Amino acid sequence: MMRKVKSLSISSLLAAFAVVPALLLCSTDGHSQAAKPAAPAAAKGPTADEIGRRVQQFYDSTKTFKATFSQTYTIKVQNVKKESKGTVTFEKPGKMSWTYAAPNGNRVVSDGKVIRVYEKENEQMFESPVKNSQYPAALAFLMGTGQLVKDFNLKLLDAAQMKFEGGYVLEGTPKDATPAYQKVLLYVDAATNQVRRVLILDAQGNKNRFDFSAPVVNQPVAKGEFDFKPPPGTRVVKP
Prior knowledge:
12-stranded mixed beta sheet, two-stranded antiparallel sheet
């Protein structure tokens, strides 16, 4: 994606148990005896694609989405972790606004046509058309511009092993290869169908993790949320 910006929200299914009815079996001495009831079959859970469709259905039904986030960006070659936090707002179609809390102060804003990435520390802003952006498709479904099952090959991981019991963990590999990332992990709340965590992995082994909390959906968004003008003196970089 763009330089310093660390590029970002399931399903509940009632388990059905099938019980094999007891059968009368004939013994070798000619007497019939009741067989012990067969053990209940293992509960069959939802497939990865089914969970993906439930996640998609939830976000398709939302017009706006707002949450607080914490971000941990791990640079593998340097063995360095950078942590930040803030708030994020999405509005369909294609609008988003990331506001990083101090001392970070960065902003990532899209009005649906142009995406602006402001770096406070470097006093510069990258500006490019959304259609040319490599912003992960992992976030596109939040903005109403992507389809999980269509855009990714989905795989269901062991939630207990991933330390996310009570939910689902989807591993998504983009069907159309992109240099921006290799895989996306979506941590899905089984009760609400919302994505609670997104983990983005790139070819260099770097990890970009977003944890979302206090989500609010379908609430009015403040006017001007998706308009951003950098401070005077900011260097604007365009492709």
